[in-house]
Write a structure and sequence with these properties.
By secondary structure, the protein is an alpha+beta fold. It is 62% helix and 11% strand.
Length: 291
């Protein structure tokens, strides 16, 4: 069972607490299933809970009793169709929402109910361990704009996109997806996204630390290689005796321990000095070799 299906099953179990919210959820369900559009009298789904919710909603909100038909499906599972019996029933449903769309979404509680209905019939969300992506197959640019305006009221931003003759609206990013899932009541789905996000953030931080450590090691080894090459040039010319006395000990330590950091070199001297002191002496050796 996909993550989207699990989330939708959870949402189908929520019942609006007030008549205004019931109307808003019904509007989201019917507008984005296209049952309010001319020429669309049925809605098909692979999820029985969605079909049952659609039938119950049209009965309780619109007073229209629809047929829920189980269709044969190749492979495992079944497909369910919610069908409006006739044109008279379709007119009753459309009349219930005629001229009321703006008023339906006046209250914040109704916005959440509306968005819950929209997600149930046309939304999908990717398994969070793979990507943070939520998509709504809105069907038309107008429905994309309605959805965009409604989401903006919750501070959630997305984009519309046309694929062929179909319009869709999508949201990227864990924070916006979590905010929307919380608003519409998908608590278990939110918990899964948050846990996955925390784990991914932890891994990313760990990787950044490892990469940072590796970069520091690489810089240390690169600098050490240059220092060792300079010291060898001085030794080849006149041996350790040709190196100024105050630089001989650090020169020998660096040649014998190319992997040591400046701190480790400073602590290994017979008379320890600061890291900057070690760095200064090594620079002196490189300047002598350059001359």
């Amino acid at each position: 069972m996909s993550y989207s299906t699990v989330a939708k099953n959870e949402l189908c179990g929520i019942r609006p607490e007030s008549d205004c919210c019931a109307l808003a959820e019904a509007y989201g369900l019917l507008l984005y299933s296209r049952l309010l559009s001319e020429g669309h009298d049925s809605y098909a789904t692979d999820t029985k809970e969605i079909a049952v919710l659609m039938g119950e909603t049209m009965a309780s909100v619109c007073g229209v009793y629809t047929d829920v038909i189980t269709l044969a499906k190749n492979g495992s599972g079944s497909r369910y169709m919610v069908s409006i019996p006739n044109d008279e029933q379709k007119k009753l449903i459309c009349a219930r929402f005629a001229g009321t769309s703006g008023g339906i979404l006046e209250k914040e509680c109704c916005v959440a109910s509306f968005l819950r209905g929209v997600f149930i019939v046309c939304g999908t969300v990717t398994e969070p361990s793979r990507d943070y992506h939520m998509e709504f197959l809105a069907g038309s640019e107008r429905r994309c704009d309605i959805l965009s305006d409604t989401l903006e009221r919750l501070g959630i931003h997305g984009n519309k996109l046309q694929r062929g003759d179909r319009w869709l609206f999508y949201i990227k990013g864990a924070d916006d997806i979590i905010r929307l899932m919380k608003a519409i009541g998908a608590r278990n789905a939110v918990q899964h996204v948050e846990q996955t996000k925390n784990m991914r953030d932890f891994r990313n931080n760990a990787n950044r630390l490892v990469n940072c450590d590796q970069a520091n090691i690489d810089r240390t080894l690169s600098a050490s290689a240059q220092q060792c090459a300079a010291i060898r040039r001085l030794i080849e010319k006149s041996g350790y005796a040709g190196i100024p006395p105050e630089l001989r000990e650090i020169a020998q330590l660096r040649i014998e321990n190319p992997e040591m950091t400046l701190r480790e070199l400073s602590e290994s001297l017979s008379e320890p000095i600061t890291r900057s002191g070690v760095n200064h002496r090594l620079k002196k050796l490189m300047e002598l070799a350059g001359k």
